[in-house]
Amino acid sequence: MTDLDEQGRPEPPIAADETGTLLGFLEFQRATFAWKCGGLDAGALKATVGASAMTLGGMLKHLAYVEDYWFSRTLHAREGQALWGTVDWKADVDWDWHSAADDSPEEIYALWDDSVSRSRAAVEEALAGGGGMGQLAQQIRSDGTAPSLRWLVVHMIEEYARHNGHADLIRESVDGLVGE
After folding, report:
1. Ranges of the chain whose pLDDT falls below 70
2. Which of 18, 79, 111, 134 has a CA positioned 20 to 30 A from the CA of residue 49?
3. 145 vs 72: CA distance, rounded Å
4. d(CA 15, CA 13)
5. Can you spell out the DSSP letters for the chain?
6. Angle between helices 56-68 and 105-128 (to 10 degrees)
7. How many beta carbons lie within 10 A of that of residue 41, not counting itself?
8. CATH level 2 (architecture), domain 35-175
9. Rounded CA gap, 171 and 2, in Å?
10. Do residues 119 and 66 make contact, with C-beta atoms less than 8 angstroms apart?
């Protein structure tokens, strides 16, 4: 059983193996992001801070895309959610960020929740194959290399940690919620 902190986030294990530690920290970062974005209406999901155009809704949609990109497309060489295939990314490289303004909170939350669920299943599937964190992703880069599952998980921890800092600032400006 996982211990939860006062915000309902799963505490990363303090004495686990590599896989347990890495996945524990990824789940903690995901839960922190969910806490920072949780329960907000459309106006709050569109709020910005200072000169930045970044919004919590845009972050939710961006992280939904990033989850799918790394754990479906890269790790297993599968298509992600159908939505991503409809986007002309060459014409608009930041589509995920700004298109969220046209989506309802329910759509954005569902998109992110689904991507995270699919990512968890993709990692479980990879680990069940016995290759551990050192196994290489199935999608090969143009230089002939492939990242390890370890690299993918650490990259996602970094991605969430960075955006959790952004979410802190925006959420505090929306309704004063502060904390880790």
Report:
1. 1
2. 111
3. 17
4. 6
5. ---B-TTSPBPPPSS--HHHHHHHHHHHHHHHHHHHHTT--HHHHT---TT----HHHHHHHHHHHHHIIIIIIHH-----HHHHT--TTT-TTHHHHHGGGS-HHHHHHHHHHHHHHHHHHHHHHHHTT-GGGPBPSSPPTTS---BHHHHHHHHHHHHHHHHHHHHHHHHHHH-----
6. 30
7. 10
8. Up-down Bundle (1.20)
9. 27
10. no
Tokens of residue 93, six digits: 């490289």
Measured CA to CA, the distance from residue 60 to residue 100 in angstroms comes to 8
Residue whose token pair is 């200072």: 50
Domain locations along the chain: 35-175
Q: Label residue 152 exposed, middle or buried (CB < 10 Å: 0-12, 13-18, 19+).
A: buried
Of 38, 60, 66, 48, the closest CA to residue 157 belongs to 66
pLDDT recorded at residue 55: 97
Tell me what percent of the residues of the chain surpass a pLDDT of 90: 91
CA-closest candidate to residue 75, choices 151, 2, 177: 151
